[in-house]
Every structure is written in structure tokens, then in C-alpha cells.
Amino acid sequence: MAPPLININDIHLTFGGNDLFSDVSFAIGERDRLCLVGRNGGGKSTLLKIIAGEIEADGGERFVQPGCKVAYLNQEPKFDGYDTVEEFVLSALDAHEEEYSYRSDMLLASVSIDPMADPKQLSGGEGRRAAIARALIADPQVLLLDEPTNHLDLPTIEWLEGEIKNFRGAVVVISHDRAFLNAVSNGVLWLDRGVMHQGKLNFAKFEEWSEEIYRKESEERAKLDKLIAKETVWSVQGISARRKRNQGRLRRLYDMREQRSAQVDRIGNVSLAADTGGTSGKVVIEATDIAKSFGDREILTGFSTRILRGDKVG
User: What is the DSSP letter of 113?
Assistant: First the structure.
């Protein structure tokens, strides 16, 4: 069996002192077609950026096989600095990959985009199609797609489904298009309450699979509650609980209570609110395409920055 193309081990990330996710581990293998799913605001797009190497986690390990090329499709492609769509698409190639340049016209023709068009004048759907062509041009081993079907018409979605099915590498995709996920996936990465579950199944089976996970969690909580109740009765029965030989049993009770408390915390929603009282993760501020005007006077446009913990900005 071939080794995974990408290994993610014990990744964790915090925003505003709150865990966005923790101890996330999974592998991406050849021919995997993984859909990354979870609640809105749960960190899916951020995790995809970590897989792509766009941002760093606060801890853990991201390992990519040497020579493995990873292509990443952002939700919002950036066209600044490119005069033509062809220039934008070809920018994905390294100097030694010029032999792939012939694919630019072919891919753009497939998505009905004029190579000489100004990318900044493209509609949302046209820009999305150009960005998909850019992701595909260098024939990567891993393709990471964040909402690839946004703004696409049905024929283009069907074309993209065909490209993914024929793609020789691995794919990880975030999408709210259930039909698209049903058509292309053979595995699920479920980011749930900051914890990752990985299953070898088509997205069509996700509801059944996730309900089974919830059922098992509920059973485990019920068993733990029963054991805690039993041990609590023992602990309050009298002096015996305070004898030295019983201190180990008492400590185990405290440990079980902490374990149960942690389970309750994981049932709630992940909060992304800033917490001024805690220590943030590595990323303190991330801003994209900030603009500001006073009346008709534009004083700031297209400003993007990322400020990490410990940075001194002046």
C-alpha cells in the first residue's frame, strides 16, 4: 500500500483563546475523494488552508510527501497583478513546469473563458471557472477545493465532476452542494465540535454514519454517568473514602468527573468570539481586501495582512 500523500497529526488551532479544533489527525491517500464537512464557522476552510500550507496551526504536524504538488482553490480567487486570464492561470506553474503551459488554452476552452480577458472584469462564475483551471493546470497530486461549485452553472458543475472522477491524485473538497458531494466523494472528513472523524464512505451515507457516532457517544456518556453516580455514593458514605488506601479510588472519581465535564463541553457549539482575557493562537488578526473611503475620497483599498502573536507592527 502506498504511503499517504499528506499526513495531519495532532493539529490544533485557537482563535481569541478558544479552541477552534484540537488533536485533529487524518491522512490523505492516493485516489482519495474526501469531502470535508461540519458546521458553518467550525473551521473547515481554516483547516483546508492548513492542509494547503497557507497558514500554520498552533501545534501538531503537517507532512507532505517529497515531490507531492498541492493545488489549492480558495473561496475568493485573487486577480490583482494579472492583466489576462491566461497570465493568472499560468502563474500556478513553476519555472520547470512550462511544459504544462499548453494546457492553459485547453482548460480555459473547457470552461468557456477567453484567455485574453481581463480577470478583474470576470463575473463571479467566470472567475470561479478561471480559478479552477489554475488549480488543475500543473497536474497536482493533491487538489484542495473550497466551495468549487459556487456561482457555477450546471454544465460546468458536471464538467468539474468529470475532471475530479478522472483526476489521478487525491481531492479534498468543501461544498454545500450535496449532489456534487454525492457524485465525487469516496470518503468523509467530519469536523464536529472541534474533533475530526474520518470515514470511508460516500457522502450519501453521511447522515446514517454520523447518527451512529452520536448514538455511541450517547451510550458512552450514559455508562460514565452511571459509574460516576455509583462512585459518588461510595465517596459520601463515610470515613472509608478518606482512608489512605481509598485515595486512589477517589482520584479516579475526580478524573471521571473531569472526563464527563469535557464531554459536555464538546456538545456545545464552537465559539469564534474574541476573548480579551485569554491568549490568542498564532493568528491574531487576518484581514483581506480592506477598503476605506471618506465621501468620494478613497484612502485605502485592497489592503490585506496577517498579524501573528509576537509580531511588532509599526
Answer: -
Provide the percentage of residues in the chain whose pLDDT is more than 70.
Answer: 71
Decide if 135 contacts 145 (C-beta within 8 A): yes
pLDDT per position as a tens digit, 161-197: 999 999 999 999 999 999 999 999 999 999 987 888 9
pLDDT tens-place string over residues 247-284: 666 566 556 566 655 554 444 433 323 333 344 455 66
Rounded Cα–Cα distance for residues 258 and 277 (Å)? 23
> What gap in Å lies between CA 137 and CA 97, rounded to an integer?
10
Beta bridge pairs of residue 35: 173, 188
Q: Is residue 286 part of a domain?
A: no
- Which contacts (CB < 8 Å, 24+ apart) does range 298-302 have? 302/80
Residue 114 has pLDDT above 50, yes or no: yes
Residues 234 and 87 in one domain: no
Q: Are residues 48 and 197 in the same domain?
A: yes
Determine the structural domain holding residue 97 and report its residue range: 73-139
